């Protein structure tokens, strides 16, 4: 996993957040509830976190793990599907690492 590649996808994440192009899947909503995360927590992890794993990377699409801190400062991670210049889909939410 190259640093430049992660930074480019992190830029896409922030662009989607700024423009409101974020979709939270039904599965992620269930996991958020069971793990005590709010939408604000997930958005905070995405905004300030770092990509720690890229699971599937194609030219215009990427699935990755973003790790960061929630609004209370607790560690958490989000699995996100990114479609370059289109949208970000929150696939699931994991507890701290």
Could you characterize what this model shows?
This protein has helices at 3-19, 26-35, 39-48; strands at residues 22-24, 50-57, 61-69, 75-83, 87-94. By secondary structure, it is an alpha+beta fold. The chain has a five-stranded mixed sheet. Strand 3 (61-69) and strand 4 form a beta hairpin. The longest helix is centred in the first third of the chain and has 17 residues, at 3-19. The protein is globular. The two termini are 19 Å apart.
Which helices and strands, and how do they pair?
Elements: H1 3-19, E1 22-24, H2 26-35, H3 39-48, E2 50-57, E3 61-69, E4 75-83, E5 87-94
Parallel strand pairs: 1-5
Antiparallel strand pairs: 2-3, 3-4, 4-5
Helix count equals 3
N→C terminal distance? 19 Å
- What shape does the CA trace take? globular
Order of helices and strands: HEHHEEEE
Strand content: 35-45%
How would you write the strand order of the largest sheet?
1-5-4-3-2
What is the residue-averaged pLDDT?
91
Q: What would you call the structural class? A: alpha+beta
Characterize the largest beta sheet: strand count, sense, and whether it forms a barrel. Answer: 5 strands, mixed
Q: Residue share in helices?
A: 25-40%
